[in-house]
Amino acid sequence: MSPEAEKTVEAAETTPPGKQPAAEKKNVEDYRIYILEALTEVYPGIGISSKTLSIINSVLNDIFEKIAQAPPRDARYGNKPAMTALEMQAAVSHVLPAELGKLALS
Question: Where is the stretch described as Disordered (predicted)?
Fold first, then answer.
């Protein structure tokens, strides 16, 4: 029996009849609290809709994912086992646009 079939059989044995096993949740960070705190600090009287907050959260997750993927790729080219702060700074400056990258590094 293949490993996939064994997992299916095991899952079928552990779940009650008529119920499907719960799907694994993807671990996604949520920055909504921090976005709201930054917004109220800069613009105290302005609110934000939940849909806009969700879009900004998605953009932040995408940016952080791109930044996290860049240093290991660069470290492989340099044959280094670990990432240094300089490699992280290089990743930020490569991923973010010019002025935003400079502000992030300062």
Answer: 1-25
Could you list the pLDDT tens digit for every one of the 106 residues in the chain? Answer: 555 555 555 555 565 666 676 666 666 778 899 999 999 999 999 989 999 999 999 999 998 888 888 777 666 666 777 777 887 888 888 888 888 888 888 8
What residue segments make up the domains of the chain, in order of their start?
A: 27-105
CB 71 within 8 A of CB 91: yes
Q: Is 69 helix (H, G, I), strand (E, B) or coil?
A: helix
pTM: 0.61
Determine the residue type at 74.
D
Euclidean distance between CA atoms 34 and 21, whole angstroms? 34
